[in-house]
Specification:
alpha/beta; TIM Barrel; 2 domains; ten-stranded mixed beta sheet; eight-stranded parallel beta sheet; 10 helices
């Protein structure tokens, strides 16, 4: 990969705040470490593109050994298929939206794309979207405790047969262990997912289908990955970490690579106000996690109030801060930060940064 000329980079001190700032060394370390871990349990990595939605970071993941990417929207699918010659899993359920039809048909013709279904109804919607004449590969979503989308393992054979009658080729199963996003639940969620996927794969086999892909996720549960039925993992946030992952024990402080660079715009006693509000930090606030973020270098300095363009830290007792000072805020959810950012800045030395432009979700 060609090195980006230094003159195309921008000094970090000149970046307008608020903005997303990525520590390139930590980012690469996270990518390489997880790739090595997953290879060590005999599986593959198909990371979620939605976390960063940038060409540069996807390149780093693929160069490290990822077998492909996971996308969540038609816009992401179009971008990935245009920029990368790699297998893609579309993880969200699809509707027979005419605005998506051309993108989906093009993806089917290009090959290497697997679509998610979770019922005979969603299979019918996919068939309507891609048209009656094209073959499409599908994976069936299994419910493993998140109580969102997905079916019980025992229902796999029935849904697979319904999909096959529509001319869809069933190639595997996948799941999302969302219950691992509760404190102390990640290991149990991982075991529940592993068990359910193994049962689902066996059910597919009994029904006469070959489960080539048995796909698991996510970042909180990935540290419990083990050899077994699972053939691939689909984490996303592992590349950045965030305050949520830190408090769940999924990452350590040395893994945190994404912050929001902000400027102090007011200081009144122990109340500090930043220019990074909800439109930069996102508004994610899990019930079990106090605040909307915290200062990276001052753990415990919490964003206690959030407005569109202001973040308020109350009871500040850290190092001296004055109006005009710049600070890095650790967000609760890195995915939300990248979804809101028009651009993010990647730096390897903290001095100069390369601008990255995330793909819109739609």
């Amino acid at each position: 990969m060609a090195t980006v000329p230094l003159e195309t980079r921008t000094p970090v001190v000149e970046l307008l705040t608020p903005c997303a700032l990525i520590d390139g060394r930590r980012l690469r370390g996270n990518i390489d470490a997880l790739q090595e871990q997953i290879i060590g349990v005999g599986a593959a990595l198909r990371p979620h593109f939605k976390t960063h939605r940038t060409m540069r970071i996807a390149e780093l993941q693929l160069e490290a050994g990822a077998i492909g990417l996971t996308v969540a929207t038609g816009q992401q699918l179009s971008f990935v298929r245009h920029e990368f010659d790699c297998p893609v899993l579309v993880s969200s359920l699809l509707q027979s939206d005419t605005s998506l039809a051309d993108r989906l048909r093009e993806a089917c013709l290009a090959g290497g794309v697997v679509f998610a279904i979770e019922s005979s109804a969603s299979a019918e919607l996919l068939r309507a979207a891609v048209g009656a004449d094209l073959e499409a590969e599908v994976m069936i979503e299994i419910e493993t405790g998140c109580l969102r989308t997905g079916i019980e393992p025992a229902e796999c054979g029935e849904v697979a047969r319904a999909a096959a009658r529509l001319g869809l080729r069933v190639v595997g199963v996948f799941s999302y262990p969302g219950s691992g996003y509760l404190p102390g639940q990640a290991e149990q969620a991982s075991e529940q997912e592993q068990t359910a996927l193994a049962l689902a794969a066996a059910e597919l086999t009994r029904a006469g289908f070959e489960p080539r892909h048995v796909s698991a996720g996510s970042t909180p549960t990935i540290r419990f990955a083990r050899s077994g039925a699972v053939t691939e993992y689909r984490p996303g946030t592992y590349i950045f970490g965030d305050r949520q992952q830190l408090n769940l024990g999924a990452v350590g402080r040395s893994n945190l690579s994404l912050t929001v660079l902000a400027t102090v715009v007011a200081r009144h006693g122990d109340r500090v106000v930043l220019d990074a509000g909800g439109k930069a930090l996102g508004r994610d606030a899990p019930r079990w996690l106090e605040g909307y973020g915290e200062l990276l270098d001052t753990p415990g300095a919490l964003v206690t109030r959030l407005y569109d363009h202001h973040a308020v830290i109350e009871g500040y007792a850290g190092p001296p801060l004055a109006v005009g000072d710049r600070v890095e805020v650790l967000p609760n959810n890195a995915n939300s930060v990248m979804a809101l950012a028009r651009s993010a800045w990647l730096t390897d030395d903290g001095e100069v940064a390369l601008e990255l432009t995330p793909v819109p979700d739609r």
